[in-house]
Amino acid sequence: MSFINNILKVFVGDKSQKDIKAIQPIINKIRSFEGPLSSLTNDELRAKTFEFKEKIKQARAEKDTKISQLKSEVESIEDIDAREDVYTEIDKLEKEAYEVSEKVLNEILAEAFAVVRETARRFKENTQVRVKATSKDRELSANKAYITIEGEDALWSNSWEAAGKTVTWDMIHYDVQMIGGVVLHQGKIAEMQTGEGKTLVATLPLYLNALTGNGVHLVTVNDYLAKRDSTWKAPLFEFHGLTVDCIDNHQPNTEARRKAYEADITYGTNNEFGFDYLRDNMAHTPDDLVQRKHNFAIVDEVDSVLIDDARTPLIISGQVVDGDRHEFNELKPFIDNLVAIQRQLANGFLAEAKRLFKEGNTKDAGFNLLRAHRALPKNKALIKFLSEEGTKQLLQKTENEYMADNNRKMPQVDEALYFVIEEKNNQVELTEGGIKELSKNTDDKFFVLPDIGTEIAVIEKSNLSKEEEAEKKEALFADFSVKSERIHTLTQLLKAYTLFEKDTEYVIMEGEILIVDEQTGRIMDGRRYSDGLHQAIEAKENVHIKEATQTYATITLQNYFRMYNKLGGMTGTAVTEAGEFWEIYKLDVVEIPTNRPIARQDKEDLIYRSVREKFNAVANDVQELVAQGRPVLIGTTSVEISELLSRMLKMKGIQHNVLNAKMHKQEAQIVAEAGKPGVVTIATNMAGRGTDIKLSDEVKAAGGLAIIGTERHDSRRVDRQLRGRAGRQGDVGSSQFYVSLEDNLMRLFGSDRVAKIMDRMGLKEGEVIQHSMMTKSIERAQKKVEENNFGVRKRLLEYDDVMNSQREVVYKRRRHALHGERLKLDIANMIYDVCDSIVEKNKLTKDFKNFEFELVRYLSITSPVTEADFASLNETKITALVYKSASEYYQNKNNRDANEAFPIIRNVFENPDNHFERIVVPFTDGIKGMNVVTDLNKAYETQGKQLIADFEKSITLAIVDEAWKKHLRKMDELKQSVQLAVHEQKDPLLIYKFESFNLFKTMLEGINKEVISFLFKADLPQQNTQIQEAIDEIQQDHYIESKEEVLNMEEQAERHRDAVQNVNAPQQHTITETIVRDQPKINRNDEVTIKNVLSGQTETMKFKKAEHLLASGQWVLVQK
Asked: Is 199 annotated for ligand binding?
């Protein structure tokens, strides 16, 4: 492939060189401002910022004036259609104003960058920078130690605290850093090598884009970097009157967090930006909102955020009341036993394979070897045997034979096994033998699903009464639901036991299962595996199994960052994923040249037969490097390997530090020590990302930092990131990877070419092979994995895109309700949609009686058309007449409600003993009630109209939120149930899109009818309307914020394979969770107490009367 790329470069040129060539004139222009700016006084330099802001303001003035004028006019427009046109015009003008701002930013870019560079130069060359004190300087000096006020002057020191250390400014932007700044401003990704000063690069586009006043976000991968960088670079911006803050310094949903977003430049972690967006879309008042519009974001370590984290959606959830109770602890002994007896089987097959192989009977040896591999592929004895000459080739040859013709002969291999593990696809599947073994001490059908199609046919042919037939079918579906969940629980437990290893995929700390990020080796706080897998691992490790949760709000980082008007990113490793960045985010990758040539020596991989030989070689080489006085950074792929190597080095008496997921809190300190002579640091892939390892002259003379990679990672990016720890800013250094045929990458994806070459050369124990051809072969294996992972992420995005379009509709409607300004328009549209739905449905069935009934039920109006007109007029005409009648009724009702409420409001307002600011006014439609909070002063001034507006807001928010929560639950269930389509040779995604559209349409119709019905029927209670003061209560909602490890679609499909293996004609019924009753059964005539979830009102009545209220979702049963 590289050969083809080289030929293409000859004809079409190198993309990177073209990109840099296009930017060079801008760099020359920046340089041209150096002379004029250096001659300015400090105050004149600061005045440039005001000049830039004025230029942007003047360019936008016409558009901004027009927007302001339309916003003030729109409230007085009564005609709904005319109002909608005005809002459309406002949206169009806001877009045009943004484009004007961008045009001006491009015009002033060169001079603005030059101003930042000149400021950096003055801070470097002067211990203090004296300027005339502004009110902002005086305000900042109160809590910023680096600003001192002396009379009329402000003294800015060039030393300050950042992340607990004193830093002295010593940086001026190089040309290559200015190129990087231009790339970021253009909304592209700048690939810059480690040590090239990415943090400094970001100051240029941050300053430029902050001039618009619309806010700029700098996104980092962890809070340490967010807090460090926001304080390290802040004085550069604050000197020019720009405000800087970091959201991670403040608690969520607080005034301080809101102020952080109001700053010109806001630093923070990707998770917190995403969670704040979700929290804002669960807010109950505009005062609870913290974020502004998503203007421009620069993502640091962009590959980590947008690629590695792309499979992990952000989720805010709450406990499911009496929710899904999986049988993990009950089923665990079954799996314990099953895994133990399969291990014995696997060892038997392996022993037989070894014997036959020794005798030269390769056919039968291969068969037994394949059985052992499909039984337990991670068996240490098996992995060891597969590193011997000819064994891996035999396994691959046998596997190819039995997989031919769509796995035609594979059942012969699997029939002796209890379960089969497909390690490449991360899948495990119970066999018939496994189900028989599990059923030994239980009912024969305990783990077998009922054949839905056959059973339904039997029920329908039994001549039962309607009630009995319905009861039998319900019992059948309940049995299917319980057993499918049981089989799912078994499968997840099997995965936990066979595919997930402690100290590799997860660690146990303080009685909790914590996932380790395979890319960085960091612990992923608050992240859980989805679909019951995390609970299965908790059961396996005997830790507390956390309760199931229900999703309240969710978004993937992919879709969150696609909301920004402009997005840029920077990293040391992006080119290998350039295709994905463009396809998913439309982000171009530009390689930025290094300031000095790279002097690091990247050696070809050393390849050994076994892991033991490889680690012995690593330990010996480390001993040699330490003797030379060189620091060594050893990169490992798991906690387990880092601890193994640590033990080996201790045995050799080599002092060293260990940096892994269990010790991540000491990261900064360990990395700071890593560049000292003879210091050895063992690190998982985190390797101090975002922190430079600085070397002394003594170390440079000895050969610089030595990087040792103990295994190739699935992704070339992670390997490049590790190599990049050495050789910063032209420093000397070296990198060497050690590989064995037993490594996961080589076992699963390495071609048999490597094994063949090693066999041909007849390598003995401990001997090594090193050649560029072998390194390329390994990189091809990595490319296979990368392509597979890209497919998974793209598929996940396709699923989330369906949810995203729905999320945008609901959140937009919610925003309108929250702010109130466009709510009247939404309500008018809802009225029209309800009218249209009623007319369409009844016109189709020609049912005038039901048409009249539904008009009264939902809109409280009589029919504006006669039965004859209903039959003769078309749908559009009838809908228009009904809408006109309903709108007039609603307008009159609102006026009536305001007139009735005003005397009560006036009494409270004019009572000298009352000092209320906000009051609570009750409304009821006769069935359910709602307390509406309103501003007393505004309600009095508008003669009750503000109360009606607040009533509309409250009911819309309450109903939308409840419906959205239920919809998310249904969508979760749908995503699981559509995987059954795989067995019918159908694409689950297509079915998901179709079904989710129907679910969404049903939800919107339900919201419309519920909101309109309540608005049309609800009034102030006629007697004893008690007005109380609205007191701010701390919200009692306990939300859980998490990032879930999402299974790919093949993994999800696999969970259903067992569920349908005994079903001839599978029906698509939603898979629901097992619910165990812990209360006595309620009979229809029993007295029950129910509670309204919106108003808190309680009622006691017979259960048969309460059933329809409970079914509406607005009322819940109160347990006695």
From this structure: yes
